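Quick entry between incubations.
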Amino acid sequence: MSTHLQVINFSLTYFQNCYAFLCFLLVLSTCKLNAQDSTFAQGVIVSAHPLASQIGIQILKNGGNAFDAAVAVEFALAVCYPIAGNIGGGGLLVYRKANGEVGMLDYREKAPALASRDMYVGNDKSVKGHFSVGVPGTVAGMCELHAKFGTLPLADLIAPAQKLAAQGVPLTAREAKRLTKEQDTIRKYNTYTPCLLHPAGKWQTGDTLHLKDLAYTLAQIQERGREGFYKGIIAEKIVREMQKRGGLISFTDLETYRPTWRSPLVGKYKGHRIITVGTPSAGGLILLQCLQMLELGKFELGKYGFQSPKSIQALTEVERLAYADRAMYAGDADFYPVPYHNLLQKSYLRRRIADFSWEKAKPSQEVKAGSFLPTDSEETTHYSIVDKWGNALSATTTLNDAYGSRVMVEGAGFLLNDEMDDFSAQVGKPNKYGLTGTEANAIQPFKRPLSSMTPTIVERAGKLLLIVGTPGGSTIPTSVLQTILNVIEYKLPLRQAVQSLRFHHQWLPDAIQTEPAPRTLPAQTIQTLEKKGYKFMTRPETIGRVEAILALPAGKYQGASDDRGDDTVAGW
Ligand code: GLY
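Done. Structure below.
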């Protein structure tokens, strides 16, 4: 078997102490890691962490399919990427089987039975702490995915993550920094000393996170499947944790949680078929509305040029319109009649874009708008997978904020989400922007909070073309949109399509949001657009971390991970 030494984008110190180093050497000998520009015939995995990507590729090498690998990657991220990987959160995925069949699995968290519409009125408890937690969906989602499509035993798919947790995980430089920043909040929102707290309050690159309790929880799931989490000892630990500080999740909430198979939202763009998520996310809706308006408005992006003022203007105006609709209409369609049909109708979208002007920006206050401002957190994570049969899977999973609610279940070793904050927490009351929330996303028991996650698969001429997704809260749909356009319209190589700077407009605030240096737009482009009335706003953080796989001719694939993080391509 050949050894491929590739460019590795994280430092050697990371590996100095540990098991990961041995794992890493082993994997180098059997597959390509972070192989951005290589092509593969047997399978590719792109995820936020090198260990998760290599665990997934090993499952493919062991004969597993893309669904088996997804289960292994999801559990691995819960161990090696605690900022967003999770078993205490939820997610959404779309798949396209080798025979062309498509589907969506919704394993988003739900509001507990005791949740109520005004539970966050007059308090800030939706963001952190026990009261912010929705009923986790990840374990049920993965068990469901495995039951329907898996070929290897569930316990074998969880085993690598379980071993990793038992042996401890070395921190990358980025993770050490981020976790150090979070020490005070983690201390504040726990009643004991969880393993994410460093005794001296500062994590260093290469320090090991000891995750024995998480290893125990994973062993329970290995042994008993979903019941190992939603019933018995782990459920008791979750409920006990909730009861310490007013959390709402009960045994019944856990026992009755079920993921939902849904039809994906499917649209077209210039001969491409876009397979993305519908409810409970607005991400797919925004993506399809934007693409449709670009096509119906006869914008020739390829001709205008990549990130030219005209391209930026066209994208900004369709994003403005789509986010205004999101604010008004989007919510969990199981509870609220989201008018997908109308919102995606050609005649409607043609009307929406009809008064586009190249002369000047359209102020957001002139756009018919709802009154709910998206406030999703940006700490989510995505993985894209293809296997040797051509099965493709695109999954985005989240705790909502970085480290979720910061509450770690005592004795069970995992973080709980703060997904309740994705609801429109105060319907009828002004939020921090002076706007009021709408009914569509109001809190109700068992309802799912509105998401922006946009895991997506693109087909061309009936064949798989692109698997794509990203974290990034409300910026997710626009990052996915730009990556798709970078490939389809601007014909960029995949790596550049993923790494290039991104920009974002979400109707309110009325500004084109850009990334911090060095990913800055040329001064001339900004000036040209400012003259037309566009405002710019530099965000403190980068936008998104796209994980993409491109299908090439002759059954080959290429992966690209985002160098905005420790994200890694693995393939063989
Ligand atoms: N919590 C982020 C999202 O669901 O979009």
